Amino acid sequence: MRKLFYMLPLAAIAWLSSCQEQPLTTFGDDHYIYFDKYYVDEKEPGKHTADSTFASFFFLSDDVDAVDAALLVHMAGRNLTKDETFKLRVVPEGTTATPDEYKLEDTYTFRARATEANATNRTDTILIKMYRRPRLKDLPKGVRLMVELVPEGGLLLGQTERTRAVVILTRDAIKPAWWNTEVKELLMGEYSPRKYKLFVMHIDPTASFNEEMLKDTPWKARQLVQKFKEWLGKHPDKAVEEDGTPITVNV
């Protein structure tokens, strides 16, 4: 086997070496930017699926009318020697949000910061301001904003499947998977967005009530619901649904 290896042409040996998967390198002077999440399923090698960034008013009081959606942006290449700017452009065919429901800055900045010599990319965070409008309460799935990167100066576009990003803005949280028939009948009662919001804001701010708690320490789950029942009794003016119906639990 060793003899056979030595008989291989040098070109073939080089080809075999090049077939091994290599991490991104920082060689060259080009800088490529791309979002952290894929807006469509990855084509090659096809291991990553499309994902969105969610922003919600669920954990905020009802008088808050704006929330930031945070997007992670990566850059492949050497460390920047100076800050570089880029823009975002709305993709109309992927957007249901109206212009008054979001605000894009004129430019965004990828900051020049030192990073480890063997790093495969650099990361920065940008914020898109999203606004609450009256129609949001009638849209359970929220509104959708798709943006794409527009590089400037010394920046170039990176991986195609990550040149765009999708932001979903909702008023309410999606009904938790653990709120099943058993939880409804024995603990929390019928699900409603307002009931869940009051429970999280005043009783369970860390959202510890979940499938694991129900399975491993159901007595803790019951204690939380009992505390919620006490809170509802002490705050009858707040313990109502949007239509004025009293909020109740089944403990």
What does this structure look like?
This protein has two domains: 26-170, CalX-beta domain (Immunoglobulin-like, Sandwich); 181-234, no CATH class. Helix content is 22%, strand content 24%. The protein has six helices and ten strands, in the order H-H-E-E-E-E-E-E-E-E-E-E-H-H-H-H. The strands form two sheets. The chain has a five-stranded mixed sheet with strand order 5-7-3-1-9, with no helix packed on it. It is elongated, with a radius of gyration of 25 Å. The protein starts with a helix and ends in a 17-residue tail after the last helix.
CATH topology of the largest domain: Immunoglobulin-like
Got a strand count? 10
> What is the H-and-E element order?
HHEEEEEEEEEEHHHH
Beta fraction of the residues? 15-25%
Low-confidence stretches: 1-27
- The helicity comes to 10-25%
What is the CATH domain class of the largest domain?
Mainly Beta
Signal peptide: 1-21
Keywords: Signal
Task: Summarize the SSE layout with pairings.
Blueprint: H1 2-7, H2 10-18, E1 31-35, E2 53-56, E3 66-76, E4 84-90, E5 102-103, E6 108-110, E7 122-131, E8 143-151, E9 155-157, E10 164-170, H3 181-188, H4 193-202, H5 211-216, H6 218-234
Parallel strand pairs: 1-9, 2-10
Antiparallel strand pairs: 1-3, 3-7, 4-6, 4-8, 5-7, 8-10
Quick structural gist:
By secondary structure, the chain is α+β, with helices and mostly antiparallel strands. The chain has helices spanning 2-7, 10-18, 181-188, 193-202, 211-216, 218-234; strands at residues 31-35, 53-56, 66-76, 84-90, 102-103, 108-110, 122-131, 143-151, 155-157, 164-170.
